[in-house]
Amino acid sequence: MAKGKLPEQQQPGEGQREFHERRRPWGAMVHAGTEVKTCRSRIGSAVEMLRGQLNGPSSYPIPVSQRARVEEWEQLLSRVLSDLEAVDVDAWKPQIREEITYRPEGQQ
């Protein structure tokens, strides 16, 4: 590996096709981590909105007939959010970096 370059970066002497193939697991995991972060954000916003509706004056008032449904949704989404917040989206990086480290032919 070239000095100063991370394994997920193209290395000197490495072909474009080889680089993209070697880096594929890294890209997949980065994409998955981004999706987890997006889900956290969106579900967090939904939970805040639902709690706002339940806890008093809100710009999105709910009909009395729907209060139980909104409480159910808030509880469900709070549990999902808790599970998503427990996910360490960076824990995989050291292992994948080792797995994708560029090793020129003959230096395997």
TrEMBL record:
The organism's place on the tree of life at top rank: Bacteria
Region Disordered, annotated ranges: 1-27
Name of this protein: Uncharacterized protein
